[in-house]
Amino acid sequence: MKIAKSNRRRWVPFTGFLIILTLTACGGSSAAPAASGQASATGSASTAADTIIIKNFMFSPASLSVAPGAVITVRNQDSVTHTLTDKADPKLFGTGDIGAGQVKTFKAPGQAGSYSYICMIHQYMTGTLVVR
After folding, report:
1. Which residues, at least 6 apart from 64, have a Cβ–Cβ distance to it below 8 Å?
2. pLDDT at position 46, please?
3. The pairing of beta strand 103-107 with beta strand 71-76
4. pTM value?
């Protein structure tokens, strides 16, 4: 099938727009890592071993073992906002609010030990971070 000359002119600018849109969408994130103990939103993937999923108002896994200073990814798969906050010392580590569908990261404490954490909004949600 042959395209008439008048129709060809309409496709050239549209094709150029699609190429620009595609190249723009493929750009990466330049977010810097969070300071120790502070949360940040992230688009980067971490290992599944260092990930906590929030789903059905529960942390999964309920207990996570990590190395000192490890970056932990928290994915909220619920339809409401949650937090993940150290129970004994909220300033030690936490995510702040994690909206529905959001992902945040935080750094594990540098000292080995067992750290209980909670959701500050739904305080029946608990878990344990084991730093080895």
Report:
1. 50, 52, 72, 127, 128, 129, 130
2. 46
3. antiparallel
4. 0.66
* Helix then strand then coil, % of the chain, to nearest 5: 20, 30, 50
- The two structure tokens encoding residue 81: 């906002």
**pLDDT at residue 48 is higher than 80:** no
Structure tokens at 6: 């008048």
Encoded amino acid at 30, one letter: S
For residue range 3-36, list pLDDT tens digits in order: 555 554 554 444 444 344 333 333 333 333 344 4
CATH 1.10.10.10 fits 40-131, yes or no: no
Q: Domain locations in the chain?
A: 40-131
Across 66-91, b (16+ Cβ under 10 Å) vs e yields beeebbbbbbbebeebbbbbbeeeee
Rounded Cα gap, residues 85 and 97, in angstroms:
10
